[in-house]
Write a structure and sequence with these properties.
With 554 residues, the protein is of the alpha+beta class. It contains 22 helices and 13 strands. It has 4 domains: 74 residues, Orthogonal Bundle (Arc Repressor Mutant, subunit A), CATH 1.10.10; 133 residues, no CATH class; 110 residues, RepB DNA-primase, N-terminal domain (Alpha-Beta Plaits, 2-Layer Sandwich); 97 residues. Helix 5 packs antiparallel against helix 8 and helix 15 packs across helix 16. It is globular. 25% of the residues are buried.
Length: 554
């Protein structure tokens, strides 16, 4: 009985979407209610609503975007391909029949195209045919058995595109229609023959002639796809994180990660990212900047950002061999170096230190993290300052892409890793601690905000992650335990952001504490030894600013 009621509830959700789409209340790309809202409105259980949404997503009729919602889509190709392939097997459909139907479509499409078409149109059509055949063959190679079924669908899409492109008010062509109609009747398919006979009248009502500009943009997505394939082949990462950032005129930013689910980001495989490129193009159209972040288990991908033409030339003359070179905007460049990981406990610190050192000499002096996003090649750089007079934006150009490792950067990584290992052995032998005299740390949350206020007085804050790292180092210097610092960062760090970003704050706090209590923290404590007494005064309230030109903290 419970199963029967569940089925009725499940069907009620389907009936709701059918009625809404039929009435025109829901259209393509419209946002639909959440599972909770459907459950309340339709008086069904949340499990039934979620089950219905899940099935609709598998069918390609809706798309669930984490952090955004559920949207009406029409991505049914993969589902229909699998379904029709199984249908052909179960019903013993002869492949010869499919081939004969393809011939009928081809003859009809060819007759319609040749009659009344201009020489320029025929040339464009032939070029498009060549391109679509190559594209279809590349897809067919991956699917194996349902090859003929997929070919049929590709041909139907081709015929549909030809009908639209040639529909320009010319006299209707009837040459090929009776032939295919008779072919259907000869095989006893009377219903299909009648549908074919009166198709032209129906299609004239449904379709309008597309603007010329839309026809010209039909190949636009392939540019981004081709650039990504060249880029991915050179970078050779297992996965790629996709970040979308919308930049406002006032300098504000709105950021979300396309592959993030449940507060975690795993990145897309190259094939998965290719499938998301149309969606990324839609995001770009609405004003988003698109960024890639390569993620690998066995390789570092070192980004050198904001390079000039001169610094890029010097970088290459000094012996560094980038795998990828991008022109993110006119006269501004980004380089990506690829080196293998050392497999030691200091891998992350080594990558961060190389990134910091190379950027300090050749690029962005503020960049110090090894895992860092960079602009996606082929997409537009939509920073407001780059907006042209015609309203467009410069394209991110892929200047160079070749799969290779940088030998000089690898040698530098090995040297840094050796230094970290020696420093660790030295600390272990000496059991070194930083003297605390008689200072007793107070409440860590109060100390966090006291240090934050002090930093705000001396620095213009652009990167709150860097500020949290500075505060964590100060808290360690003043005697707070690692557990206390980690909990303080997890609790307090979200409160100083203007908007909640939905990141995993626990993981963020762990990374920040790892820095403060790791080799990099040891090195920075030694470098800032002269400020330690000052940090104690800030925490216990005994420090007062003497003047605006006083001591600037690092």
């Amino acid at each position: 009985m419970e199963e029967k009621n569940s089925q009725k509830a499940y069907e009620r959700v389907f009936d709701y979407f059918t009625a809404e789409i039929t009435s025109g209340s829901l259209r393509l790309n419209d946002k639909i209610p959440t599972g909770r809202a459907l459950s309340e409105n339709l008086k069904v259980s949340r499990n039934s609503a979620r089950e219905a949404l899940h099935v609709l997503e598998m069918m390609g009729l809706i798309e669930c975007i984490q952090g955004s919602g559920n949207y009406i889509r029409c991505n049914t190709r993969e589902y229909m391909t699998k379904l029709m392939s199984l249908t052909m097997v179960l019903q013993h459909i002869n492949h010869t029949e499919v081939f004969e139907m393809r011939c009928g479509f081809e003859q009809t499409a060819l007759a319609a195209a040749m009659e009344g078409a201009q020489p320029e149109e025929l040339a464009r059509m032939k070029e498009r045919h060549r391109f679509e055949r190559k594209k279809a063959l590349s897809h067919l190679a991956k699917y194996g058995l349902p090859v003929l079924n997929i070919a049929r669908h590709c041909l139907m899409a081709q015929q549909r595109a030809e009908r639209i492109s040639l529909r320009s008010g010319r006299k209707k062509v009837r040459g090929g229609k009776p032939r295919f109609e008779n072919w259907l009747r000869s095989r006893g398919m009377e219903k299909e023959a009648n549908c074919w006979r009166y198709r032209a009248a129906r299609e004239e009502k449904r379709h309008t002639s597309p603007p010329a500009e839309r026809r010209e943009k039909g190949v636009e997505p392939m540019r981004e796809l081709a650039d990504f394939r060249k880029y991915a082949d050179a970078v050779n990462a297992e996965r790629y994180r996709v970040t979308c950032i919308k930049m406002e005129e006032d300098g504000g930013k709105k950021t979300f990660i396309l592959d993030k689910k449940g507060g975690m980001t795993r990145g897309f495989s190259p094939d998965e990212l290719e499938a998301h490129i149309p969606e990324m193009l839609r995001f770009q159209k609405r004003g988003e900047n698109i960024y890639y972040t390569p993620l690998s288990d066995d390789r570092h991908h070192i980004l050198i950002d904001d390079m000039t033409r001169d610094s890029l030339k010097k970088f290459q003359e000094d012996g560094f061999r980038p795998a990828v070179v991008l022109e993110s905007s006119p006269g501004n460049y980004q380089c990506l170096l690829t080196i293998p990981r050392q497999g030691t406990e200091f891998d992350r610190d080594v990558g961060n230190r190389i990134t910091e050192r190379l950027n300090r000499e050749y690029g962005d002096k503020k960049l110090c993290g090894c895992i860092h996003p960079h602009r996606a090649p082929g997409f537009a750089n939509r920073k407001p300052k780059h907006k042209r007079e015609d309203g467009g934006y410069p394209q991110v150009k892929l200047l160079f892409a070749e799969r290779r490792e940088c030998g000089k950067a690898l040698a530098l990584a090995r040297r840094i890793d050796h230094e970290y290992a020696e420093a660790a052995e030295k600390r272990k032998a000496e059991r070194r601690t930083f003297p605390m005299s008689d200072f007793r740390p107070g409440d860590p949350a109060s100390a966090y905000y006291a240090h934050l206020e002090n930093i705000r007085r001396h620095l213009t804050i652009e990167d709150y992650s860097r500020v949290d790292a500075m505060i964590a180092l100060r808290l360690r210097s003043n005697g707070h335990s690692r557990e206390s610092v980690e909990e303080t960062i997890r609790t307090c760090a979200p409160t100083i952001r203007e908007t909640q970003t939905g990141r995993n704050w626990q993981r963020y706090a762990e990374r920040t504490a790892d820095y403060a209590f790791g080799p990099a923290g040891d090195r920075d404590l030694e470098r800032n030894e002269r400020y330690r007494e000052l940090w104690r005064k800030i925490e216990n309230g005994g420090y007062k600013e003497k003047s605006k030109t006083g001591l600037r903290l690092r």
